[in-house]
Amino acid sequence: MSRYSNLSHSELERMLSESERLLRADTDTDTDYLLHNLQLHKIELEIQNRDLMESQKELENIRDQYAELYDFAPVGYLTLDKNGIINNLNISAAAMFGAERSRIVGRPLSTQLAPGMGRLLFDHLRHAFSSDQKVTADLALKTTSDGITRYVRADTIVHADLESQAHCLMNLIDTTERRRAEQAVIDERTFLQHVIDGVENPIMVISLDFKVLRMNEAAKRIATMQKIDPEHACCYQISHQVDRPCDGDDYPCPLKIVLQTRLPTKVTHNHISEFGTQRKYEVSVSPLFDDDGEIMGVIESSHDITEHLELLDELKERQLSYAHLAQHDALTGLPNRLLFADRLSQAIHVAHRNKSMLAVLFIDLDRFKEVNDSFNHATGDAVLKEVAERFQSLFREDDTIARMGGDEFTVILTHIKKDSNAALVAKKLLNLFKKPFTIQNHKLYLTASIGISLYPDHGDSVDELVRNADTAMYRAKEEGRNTFQYYTLELTARAFERVFLASSLHNAISQNELILHYQPQIELITKEICGVEALVRWQNRDLGLLTPDKFIPLAEESEVIDEMGAWIMKEACQQMKAWQDSGILRSDMTISVNLSGKQFDHNNLLEEIEQTLTATGLSPDCLELEITETTMMRSTSVTSETLRKLRKLGVKVAVDDFGTGYSSLNYLKQLPITRLKIDKTFISDIPDDLNDVAISKAIIAMANNLLLDVLAEGIETGEQHQFLIQQGCRVGQGYLFARPMPSDQFESFIEQTRQG
Ligand code: C2E
Ligand code: MG
Ligand code: MG
C-alpha cells in the first residue's frame, strides 16, 4: 500500500484539486508533463481509494462476523463496572436473563439474579476486583415469567486494558441442565436412603474388603451405640464388635459365601443389638454386581429372629408336650397303651435282631373295684398314682412300665437272660404291695396278680404277647391272687422254686442257715490228710440241705454273693485256726476256699481277705483260694494284680475244675498260680475212658513241668487212686477217702484216722 494509504478519501480529494489549481497558475514550461503526472496520481489515488473502500468493507464484514460470534456465543459475556452495573453484554447473556439487551445495559447485574443472590454477587465481584485471577461463582438467575429458574456459573476477571476504568469481564455458562441432572441424582440418592432408612432392620452395603459403603439408620444407630465411626466402619465391627472378619461354623462369613456361590445367602449370627443385648440375627446377603458382572460387594440386611426362635422353641416344647399327652396316661404320667404297643414292637424288633429274650408282664390289681366302690374315685386315683410311683421305682430307664387303663399295668423287660428272671421281677412287684397304701388316713392293703409271657416262646407280636400275658394274669387270679403265672405251667413251676429261693436267700445268712462242710485233701501215697476244702451248704427250712449249685448262681445274680462270700471266708478261716490251735490239724496245713467269679471281680477282695486273716489270726500261707479256670481266663490286669498281692502275702491260688475251660499255658505262666485241681469229670472215667486217661496224664505232667502242685478231685475208686499215684499226682480228694462233712463229723473223722 502507498504512503497515502492512511489518508481519508476526502483528504485525497482536497489534495488533488489543490494541485490542479497550482498547475493552472503555472502554465509555462512543463505543464503537460505535470498534468500527465497529476493524471497518473489521480488514477493511482482512485485505485487506492477503491482498495481502501474494499478493505473497509472487509473489515466491517469481519467486525460483523465477530459481533455475531460474540452475540450468539454459547457463553454469555458481560462487562461490568466496579459497582456491578452492566456495561455491555452479548445476546446469549441477555437470553439467559430472559430480557432484551437494551433493557439490561446500564442496570446492576443484581437485578437479574434470584432473590437472595445479591450478597453472593457482591462478594464475588469484590473478590474479582481484588484478585488478578479468574474467580468463579454459581448464581441463580431471576425466575422467568413462565416460572423457570436458571443457574449459571460466572467466571469473572478484571480486564487488564480496562483496569484504569476498573471494569471486569464476566462469562456465564448456563448450568441449569447440569444442575438439574445433578439434583436429580441427589434426589434419587436421598430417596433411596430414605427407603433404606425406613427399613427397621440394619442394612449395610459392604465392599469386598469388608468396608461399609453405605448403611441405613438402624445400622447407624448400632454404630453410634458402639462408638464406631460409620464413615470408616467394617461390617464385623458393627455386627459383632470384633476386629476381624467372621469365620468358622459359629460365625460363617456371608461375604465369603456369596463370593464363592455368586448367589444370595442367609446365615444366622449372634449380634449385639442397638440396645447392647445378645440377639440372634438372620443375616441375608445378596451380591452386588458391577456393569461387567463382577461382584463389587454385597448388600447385607440382618433381621432379629431371637423372638421368632424363642417362639419356635416354645412351639416345639408344646408339640412335645402334646405328643407326651397323647402317649402318656394323664393320671400317672406313665406311657399309655399306644406308646406301650410302640415300645413293645420296637423291643421285639431288637430282640429278634439280637436273638435275645424279652418278657411282658401284665399286672392287674386285686379287688381294686372294692376300693373304688367303698371310697370314691378320687381315692381310687390316688391309689393308682401311688401304685405307679412304686412300680417306677423298680425299673431301669430302658424298661417300659405302662398303664393300659383302669387298674391294669404292663411291663416290658428287655435284656433278660433266663425265663426265670421275669419271675424275680414279678416277685419284686408283688413285694411292693406289702406296705399298705395310706389314703385319707385309711390304711389299704392291696395285692396284684401278674401274668408273664416271653418272646419268642409265647409269641412274636405285640398282640400275642399281651394277650398271653393277660391269660396268664387270669390264671394268677384263679390261683388265689397276689401271685404270678407264666403263660406255660412248667415255666411257672420252675420259676417259683427260683423265686422262692431267691427271696429267702437274703435271710439265709442272718438266720444262720448257711453252713460249711469240709472235705479232707489226702496225700495219695501215705493217705494222710494234708489239707481241707470248705464247701458251702444251705440248710433251708422248707427244702432241707441245699448244695451250692442250687443257690450260688442265684446269689451271683444279686448282691448276696458278696455277703455270702465274706461269711464263707470268715467262717472257713476261723474254723481252720481253731483246728490248728486245738491240734486237730497241723499248722502247715491249708484250707481251700472257693471264690465266685463275681467276688473275684470286686475291688475290695484283697482288703477283705487281709482283714479276715488278721481278725481270725490264720497264717496267710494256710489259706488257698480256688478260682475256676473260666474265672482265671476272664482275669483283667486289675484282678491279676490282686492275685499277685495275695500271693505276696503268702496266700495260695489254685485253679479249680482244671481242664474244663480253655486256659492257655500263657495264663498259667503269667498268673501266680500254685496248684491245679484236675476236674472230677476226668477222674470219674479212669481207667476206661482213654481220652480222660490221656488228659489227666497230660495235666499232671504239665503241672510237674511248670513246678505247680496238682490235686485230683473226685477220686472214688482204688483204680483211680493207683493210676494217679503212678502218674505222679501226690494229692487228691474224693469219696474214696471222705465226703464233705460238717465240722463235728470232720473232727471225728480226723480222730478216727489218727486212731486207725
Ligand atoms: P468244687 O470246688 O469243684 O468242689 C468239689 C465238688 O465235688 C463238691 O461239690 C464236692 O462235694 C464234690 N465231690 C467231692 N468229692 C467227690 C467225689 O468223689 N465224687 C463226686 N461225684 N463229687 C465229689 P459241692 O460241694 O456240691 O460243690 C459244687 C461246687 O460248688 C464246687 O465245686 C464249687 O465250685 C462250688 N462251691 C462250693 N462251695 C462253695 C463256696 O463256698 N463258695 C463258692 N463260691 N463256691 C462254692
Ligand atoms: Mg473247689
Ligand atoms: Mg472242682
TrEMBL record:
Q: Which domain of life is it from?
A: Bacteria
Cofactor(s) the protein requires to work: Mg(2+)
Query: Which keywords does this chain's UniProt record carry?
Result: c-di-GMP, Coiled coil
Instruction: Name the chemical reaction catalysed here.
Output: 3',3'-c-di-GMP + H2O = 5'-phosphoguanylyl(3'->5')guanosine + H(+)
- Domain (PAC) ranges: 265-317
Question: What positions does the domain PAS occupy?
Answer: 62-132
Q: Which CDD domains match?
A: EAL, GGDEF
- Give every GGDEF domain span: 356-489
Q: Which residues form a coiled coil?
A: 38-65
Which SMART domains does the entry link to? Answer: EAL (SM00052), GGDEF (SM00267), PAS (SM00091)
Show where the EAL domain sits.
498-754
Q: What is this protein called?
A: cyclic-guanylate-specific phosphodiesterase
List the source organism.
Candidatus Thiodiazotropha endoloripes
